[in-house]
Specification:
heterodimer, A: about 350 residues, mainly alpha, three-stranded mixed sheet, two-stranded antiparallel ribbon, about 45% helix, B: about 400 residues, Formate dehydrogenase/DMSO reductase fold, about 0% strand
């Protein structure tokens, strides 16, 4: 089989390209993640919501939640701003907005983030982003640490604080079991106006865009949830800025997992480098100590030998001196003796002479 | 604190009575917690899922228990042998601190028997909390092993004791790695909630702030606790311990002053990077300045003065101020500046039973510490093993 030079180079080039492209492509993919295609979602339209609370009733019914103290057709409940609780997956709040003829309403429930903060924060993976887009919770592994509640930017998950030993996190499931059966979520089914539209998220975005396009006077040019916190499967339209409906507009578009990715990424680096750094410091100190000890020993031994040498020197000198003294004294003694002898001889001679 | 307790032991001293009352109330609240749930014992809500038991018992507890890794690293890695007598008490405090943190978690989480689930059943490795859990569990084990020489000497198990002593360097390095990771991760827990934590306290550097301030907490706790033990357990100390005390206070005070200076600088850098100066003129800004100037800059300066003038008393008082500063910082991040956007009536203030459990747990720690140091060779070297 003959391979032409050109073909061969082409293969090499392709291999090289894919090798170099693979990583940046994946990294870029993570940054520009736009959600799974064909997942379901719901579009809430504040222009069409009349605040009838039928969605709350529908949710309560299909999820077998406890009956509320005040019935769902009692609209005085709306006078107080409410939030989700362990026995209410969704609530509707009323907002009096200046220059609006009638009050506006906004429904709260889990937004089913494309990259959920709760799922990213859970240390037992109790939350799952399902293929339908619904974020569901599994109480069978939940420890009850409530970090998901800290993490959720929409303040959705709630906790059964009154259960001593079996508390669960409670939140909207987008009626995952019903969607699987081909049914509508309880709230959507109960809605008498078209304030809630269920469908594929990508279709809902088109619908929302079209409503804004057709009625620019009625809608803010903003689909809440398209990009907030990386995007959500629930989307919102409003005639006024969303902050007027109690929705935070300062959440940014960074998804929750990205917020912690840097800190998690540093972990293996610490594990890899700290032992090198610390054993290095240890070894340097050990060596410094060793050198200090050696220097000390050397200094001591040189001092010792110096003193020894000096002592020997002194001794030698002393010996020398002693020897010299001795010689001198011997000499003088001999001399003295000789002189004495001479003197004696002299006196003897003179005595003999006399 | 328990000044009288040490001197009038046989009779029921006031401190004994107070400790007894704290224990009884603690047991009562414990029963309430495990029969009535968190609703019956805390003011936690769906807006505020973490209260005093996380803010104080976990975050402050772990930071103040950092003395173990700081001291053992100073002595065994950085070769500061003159602080050797400070290692055992610091390791003991570290171990007790972490053990009590884990104990306190049993009150807070919904199903405490599932605490090992992240490691045994299903792991959520994308969670910062997973990292915290893994490191705390491992480090608690490391501290336990590091402390075993004391009980082994007490019990007379020479061989086992000598094996553990040989592991000292490896355990110290492992301890520093694990401490670096989980001290910083406790701060990183809040990275996921930029919309809830006030911008003055929220920062991409928060993991580094937590780690650096944990070193300050560790150094200050060794001084602070040393001054208390010297007051109450001086009779349990050997000559080396008493002689090295001054070195430890001066050396750790100097180190703390330096680290506080660095911490101050990186806090300012954080403000500049996120350009948050304008918030300083708000109410939260005033409180932030109290933390920055009163609990970081001031102790930094006082430590420096104390070291320069060899004023042990000043250094010891400053250590109390620095420790208080860490408490303030952790409570700011977890409670005071957290959920700053909520209306006042939705904000959290702890229930008295939450305080009761926190005080109960601190009291348990003090009692166990006293039990150990009055029996085991912690503040003195065992006569059979002096050659190390």
């Amino acid at each position: 089989m003959s391979i032409s030079r050109r073909k061969f180079l082409g293969w090499i080039g392709a291999a090289g390209m894919s090798a170099t492209l693979a990583k940046p492509a994946r990294a870029a993919g993570a940054k520009h993640f736009e959600g799974y295609p064909d997942t379901d979602g719901v579009l809430f339209d504040a222009v069409k919501c009349i605040g009838c609370r039928r969605c709350e009733a529908g949710c309560n019914k299909v999820n077998d939640l406890p009956e509320p103290e005040q019935p769902f057709d009692d609209l005085t409940v709306l006078e107080k701003t409410r939030r989700t609780h362990a026995d209410t997956y969704t609530v509707v709040n009323k907002y009096e907005v200046a220059r609006q003829k009638s009050p506006l309403y906004r429904k709260i429930q889990c937004n089913h983030c494309l990259e959920p903060a709760c799922a990213s924060a859970c240390f037992v993976r109790a939350f799952t982003k399902t293929e339908t887009g619904a974020v569901v919770y599994d109480a069978s592994v939940c420890v009850g640490c409530r970090y998901c509640m800290i993490a959720c930017p929409f303040e959705i998950p709630t906790y059964e604080y009154d259960k001593a030993l079996t508390p669960r996190i409670m939140k909207c499931t987008m009626c995952y079991p019903r969607i699987k059966e081909g049914l509508l979520p309880g709230c959507v089914e109960a809605c008498p106006t078209e304030a809630l539209t269920f469908g594929k998220r990508k279709d809902l975005i088109k619908i929302a865009r079209e409503r804004i396009y057709r009625h620019p006077d009625r809608y803010e040019d903003h689909i809440y949830g398209e990009h907030e916190m990386g995007g959500t499967n629930w989307l919102y339209l409003s005639p006024v800025p969303f902050s007027r409906l109690g929705m935070r507009e300062d959440l940014g578009t960074t998804s929750a997992p990205e917020l912690t990715a840097g800190a998690l990424g540093a972990v293996p680096m610490v594990v890899g480098l700290w032992p090198v750094l610390l054993t290095g410091i240890y070894a340097m100190n050990k060596r410094k100590e060793k050198i200090a000890r050696q220097e000390q020993e050397a200094a001591v031994s040189s001092a010792v030998s110096e003193t020894e040498a000096r002592a020997r020197d002194n001794l030698d000198k002393a010996m020398e001196k002693a020897r010299a003294d001795k010689e001198k004294s011997v000499e003088t003694a001999v001399k003295k003796a000789l002189e004495e002898a001479a003197r004696e001889a002299e006196t003897k001679d003179s005595e003999e002479e006399s | 604190m328990s000044h009288d307790a040490a001197h009038s032991k046989p009779v029921m001293s006031p401190m004994t009575v107070i400790a007894g009352i704290i224990l009884i109330v603690g047991l009562f609240v414990t029963v309430r917690r495990f029969t009535g749930g968190l609703a019956a014992t805390t003011n936690l809500s769906d807006y505020t899922p973490w209260g005093l038991w996380i803010g104080f018992d976990l975050l402050v507890g772990v930071a103040l228990a950092a003395g173990g890794f700081v001291t053992s690293a100073a002595v065994y890695i950085f070769g500061m042998k003159k602080f050797h007598s400070a290692v055992r008490p610091a390791i003991l405090t570290g171990f007790l601190g972490y053990a009590l943190v884990v104990f306190a978690l049993h009150y807070d989480v919904g199903r405490p028997w599932r605490l090992p689930y992240p490691f045994l059943v299903q792991s959520g490795t994308t969670s910062i909390l997973f990292e915290v859990g893994a490191c705390v569990a491992l480090y608690l084990t490391v501290l336990l092993i590091e402390f075993t020489p004391a009980p082994l000497e007490w019990l007379g198990f020479k061989k086992a004791r000598n094996i553990v002593v040989k592991l000292t360097l490896a355990l110290t390095i492992l301890g520093v790695i694990l401490s670096t990771l989980h001290q910083s991760s406790l701060g990183a827990l809040f990275l996921i909630a930029p919309s809830k934590l006030h911008p003055l306290w929220y920062s991409g550097y928060i993991p580094i702030y937590f780690f650096v301030s944990a070193i300050i907490a560790g150094l200050s706790m060794v001084i602070f606790e040393g001054s208390l033990t010297h007051k109450h357990f001086a009779d349990k100390m050997d000559e080396a311990h008493l002689k090295e005390k001054e070195d430890v206070v001066l050396g750790f005070g100097k180190a703390a002053s330096f680290v506080l200076a660095g911490y101050f600088v990186i806090k300012i850098i954080g403000l500049a990077v996120d350009n948050e100066w304008r918030y300083l003129a708000t109410g939260y800004g005033a409180w932030y300045l109290v933390e920055l100037l009163g609990f970081i800059a001031l102790p930094c300066f006082l430590y420096a003065v104390g070291v320069r003038e060899k004023n042990l008393n000043l250094i010891q008082w400053t250590s109390g101020l620095a420790v208080l500063g860490i408490v303030v910082n952790r409570l700011n991040i977890s409670l005071i500046a957290f959920n700053y956007h909520l209306p006042a009536d939705e904000r959290y203030f702890p229930h008295w039973m939450e305080f009761a459990i926190s005080i109960f747990i601190v009291t348990l720690g003090v009692l166990v510490f006293r039990f150990v140091v009055t029996r085991m060779p912690v503040l003195y070297e065992h006569p059979d093993y002096e050659a190390h």
